[in-house]
Design goal:
Elements lengths: L6 E8 L3 E8 L4 H10 L2 E4 L1 E3 L3 E5 L10 E4 L3 E5 L4 E5 L3 E13 L3 H5 L6 E5 L2
Antiparallel strand pairs: 1-2, 1-10, 2-9, 3-10, 4-5, 5-8, 6-9, 7-8, 7-9
C-alpha cells in the first residue's frame, strides 16, 4: 500500500475480536490528525451509543476542524467536548459537531461486534 502525505494508514484492533484497517485524512483535520498520529498507539474502553457509533475517550486536546454533524458507516471522528474518538456504524446525523478524521476501510463487522467495555487500540500498521 502506497503511503501519501494526506492519507495515513492505521490499524484498529479490538481485544479478542479482531482488527480493522483504516486511514486518517490529514487534509480533513491537519492539527487533530497530527496530534493523534504523535500519540499512537492509543487505546481505551469502548462505549456503544445506541446502534449509531462506538467511541472511547482519550487525553487528546484539540478544537474543532471543519465541523460536521453528518457521518456515514465507517467514518472515524473526533469529539473535542471530551476528547473521544468515534467509529460510526451506520449513516446518521448527530447533535454535537465533530471533526472527521478518516475512515475504517476493512472488517467493519469487527467494529459492529463491539460491546461496551471492549478495549480498542489504534496503532500504526
Amino acid at each position: 500500500m502506497q503511503q501519501s502525505a494526506s492519507r495515513r494508514p492505521i490499524r484498529i484492533e479490538v481485544s479478542g475480536k479482531g482488527a480493522s484497517e483504516g486511514e486518517l485524512y490529514r487534509h480533513k483535520a491537519p492539527i487533530t490528525v497530527g496530534v493523534l498520529l504523535r500519540s499512537l498507539p492509543i487505546s481505551g474502553r469502548a462505549v456503544r451509543y445506541r446502534d449509531e457509533f462506538i467511541y472511547f475517550t482519550t487525553n487528546i486536546v484539540a478544537g474543532l476542524e471543519k465541523p460536521t454533524q453528518t457521518f456515514k458507516r465507517g467514518d472515524i471522528a473526533f469529539l473535542p467536548l471530551n476528547g473521544s474518538i468515534c467509529f460510526f456504524l451506520k449513516e446518521c446525523q448527530v447533535s454535537q459537531h465533530m471533526t472527521l478524521l478518516g475512515q475504517a476501510k476493512s472488517a467493519l463487522d469487527v467494529l459492529s461486534s463491539l460491546t461496551t467495555g471492549d478495549v480498542i487500540t489504534i496503532s500504526a500498521p
